[in-house]
Specification:
heterodimer, A: MetI-like fold, two-stranded antiparallel sheet, 12 helices, 75% helix, B: alpha+beta, Rossmann fold, six-stranded mixed sheet, five-stranded mixed β-barrel, 10 helices, 34% strand, globular
Chain lengths: 287, 378
Amino acid sequence: MRGSLFRKNLVTTLLLAPAALWLVVFLVLPFIAIAIFSVGERAPEGGYQAALTFAQYANLPARATAFWNTMVLAPIGALACLLVAYPVAYYLALRAPDRWRLILLALIVIPFWTSLLMRTYAWMYVLGGRGIPALLAYVGIEDLRLINTPGAVLLGIVYGYLPLMILPIYVSLERLDRRLLEASADLGATPLSTFLGVTLRLSLPGVMTGFSLVMILLLGEYLIPTLLGGGKVFFIGNALVDLFLQSRNWPFGSAIAITLVLVSVVVLIVANRISTRLSGARRVDLI
Amino acid sequence: MTAVPDIEFRAVTKRYGAVTAVSGIDLAIPPSAFVALLGPSGCGKTTCLRMIGGFEQPSEGQVLIRGRDMAGTPPYRRPVNMVFQQYALFPHLDVEDNISYGLRQARPRLSSREISQRAGEALSMVQLAGYGRRKIHELSGGQQQRVALARALVNKPAVLLLDEPLAALDKKLRTDMQIELQNLQREIGITFVLVTHDQEEALSMSDFVCVMNGGRIVQLGQPSEIYDEPADLFVADFVGKTNLISGKVAGLSGDLVDVALADGTVIAARKRVPLSRGEAVSVSLRPESLSLSAPGGGSLQGIVRNRIFLGSTAEYAIEVQGIGSLLAKADHVMGQGNLFKPGEPVAIGFAAGAPLAFPHANNNGTNQREDQNAEILS
C-alpha cells in the first residue's frame, strides 16, 4: 500500500517536473532577478549595480505618461473589444444555424495563424497615407490623419484581441441552458429583461474572463502602440523596451516591470471577485 | 359544455420541415380540470404543451386560451405558466428570487412588499417556508420541484402547464408529489395540463386523460374509461399492462364476437369497432381479469413459468400451448396459501366481457408488449 502510494507520488512528480522546471527557470528566477534589480542602481556605463534603494520606485512618476496611457487605453481597449465581441459571441452561441457555427468560429480563429506583427503591419498601410486617407481624398475628404493616433492604437487593439474576447464569452453563452430563457419568457419577462436578467448575468464569468485576459495583455502591450501609435501613444511596454535596450537603465525598468505585474494581479483579483459575486454559476476556467 | 374552455385546440397541426409532430388536433379543456396528455415519446404531447406556452407556433389551426386566439402572442404575454422538465430554475438566484421573478416582471410594477409577501405565501404553499435564501444547487430534487411549482403558481396563471414534472424524482417522492399536485390543483382550482409518458402518473392524478399517438389524439376520457374501455389496440397496450392474443373472428353476435385462438379455443370478446368474419384480431385481456384455478376448469390450460410475489398481489407468467406467455395478476389474501408454484399446471378463466377484440395491427405497441413479457420470463 505504502509502496503504491509512493509510486503514485513519484509519477505525479515526474509528470509535473518539466513544467515546474520551465516555470522556475524562465519565470521565477527572472522575476527574482528583476525584483533585485528594481532596488539597485544604474551602473555608470548602463546595466545594474548592486544597492538597496527605493529610489527607482520614487522615480516612477517620471514615466507617468506611459502609465497614464496604459491605464486609460487598456481598459478602453478591453471595453471596446467587449462591445464588439459580445454581439458576435451571442450570435454564434444562440442564433447561428448549427451547420454555420463551426465555420464561423474557424473564421474567427484563422487570423491567429498569421503573426500579429504581420497583421499590424498591414494595418499600418491601411491606415497610412496611401491607405484609407488616400481613398477618402478621392471623395473630397482631405487631410485625414489616421495612423499614429490613439484611435489607430484602439483599432489595432480591438482587431488584435477580439478573438480572445469572443471565445470565452461564446463558451459561457454556449453552455447557457436555453430552457432558462424560455422559463424567463414564461414568467412574463420581455426579451430585453430576459437578456439583462438571465443571459447577460449568466455569461458574466465569460465576460470577466475575456475582459481580464485582454486587459492584462494590453497592460504589457508593445507592438500595437509602436506600429500604429508612432512615438506618440506610449505604453508601459514601450517604456520598458526603451529603458532596457536604449538607455540601459535596468533598475528603473525593473521597478516599472514589478509595478506592472502588481497592477495586473490586482486587476485579475478584482475581475474574479466581481464575476463570482455577480453570478452564482461557476467561473469559466480559462485562466 | 357552456363555459368557455380554458384551453382550446382548433384543427392544430405542427410541422417541422417534412416531419409532422401534431396533425389536426381538436381539443377543449374545461376550466378547473386536471388533464394529462399521455403518450410515448414523439407522440406530439410536448409540442402541444409548448404551443400553449407560446414556445412553438402552430403551422395550421388555432390555439385559444380562455377563448382568446393566441396567434402571435409571445410567451411573456400569455396567462399561463409552465413547470419545466428538470425545472429550469435560475442558478444565479436564490429560492425567493426565483419565485418572485415573475412578480418582478409584472407591469404596472408591484410593490416590493407585495412581492415578498406573495413569494412567502407561495413558499409556504409548497412547504418550503424558511428556504427563501437557499441557493438552488443546495436543494434536493424534490425541493427544486417545489420551487419550480411555486415559481409558476405565484403568478396566478389561468392554466398551469407541467412538462414531465416528476420524471426526475425517485419513486417514493413521485408518489408523494402526485398526491400533493392533486391537492394543490383542487385547492387553487385552476386548470393543470400535465404532459407525461408514464401512464400510471396520468391515470393516478388527472380527471381526464388524453392519449396521443403519432401526432393525433387517440382517446380522451376519464382514467377508468381509458383503462376499461380503450378505444383501440394502441391504448389497450399503452395504458396499463395487458395480454394481447392473436386470433380470427369466428362468429358475430351483436356487441360480441367469437374469436378462434391459435390453439383452437374459441372465446367471446367485446368489440369496439366493426369486425367481419374471418378478420385477424388481437384480444386484450388485463392480467387482473384472469383468474387461476386448479387444472380442469377455466377456458385455457397452461403451466406457471414464473411467479412474482408483490405482497398484496402475485403476478404469474403462464405458458399456454399454442398461444404463448400470458401475464396473470391475483390478489393475495394473507394466510391463505393460494399461491401457484412455477411448473404447476393451472387453468385460466376470465369474466365474461373482460376480453376486448381489436382489428389486428402490427404496430409497435404489440412488439413492445412481447418484449416486456420476455423480460418477465427471463
